[in-house]
Write a structure and sequence with these properties.
There is one protein chain. This protein has helices at about 45-50, 70-80, 90-100, and strands at about 40, 85. It is mainly alpha-helical. The protein has a domain at about 30-100: Type 1 dockerin domain (Orthogonal Bundle), CATH 1.10.1330.10. Strands 1-2 form a two-stranded antiparallel sheet. The protein is elongated and about 45 Å long.
């Protein structure tokens, strides 16, 4: 059984072993494409936009894992990124803080 790396900010979202018929999904740092409505926050309206497309193949977001269907892993990816979208400056400062002086 494949692992599910669902921790926000994980250094790597890769599972050590993935069955050949399973698609590897990477989760990690905040991904701005989860803000489906473009309001600088991942929230209820983004959740509704995802749910409206549940089970379909939109050819892009909210099919975040690219498996051709909006489903549970896409919902989890959205929920992991719930909250305000960090600005580009916040993202750069966060990366710099991880690397140290």
């Amino acid at each position: 059984m494949a692992c599910s790396p669902l921790v926000r900010g994980a250094s790597t979202g890769r599972c050590p072993e993935v069955a050949s018929n399973e698609k590897e999904v990477e989760f990690g740092d905040f991904d701005k494409d989860k803000d489906l409505d473009g309001d600088s926050s991942v929230g209820a309206s983004d959740l509704l936009l995802l749910l409206v497309q549940w089970g379909t193949d939109p050819g892009g977001p909210p099919d975040f894992d690219g498996d051709g269907t909006v489903g549970a892993s896409d919902l989890l990816a959205l929920l992991i990124n719930w909250g305000p979208v960090p600005s580009s400056n916040d993202y750069v400062l966060e990366l710099l803080s991880r690397t140290g002086p």
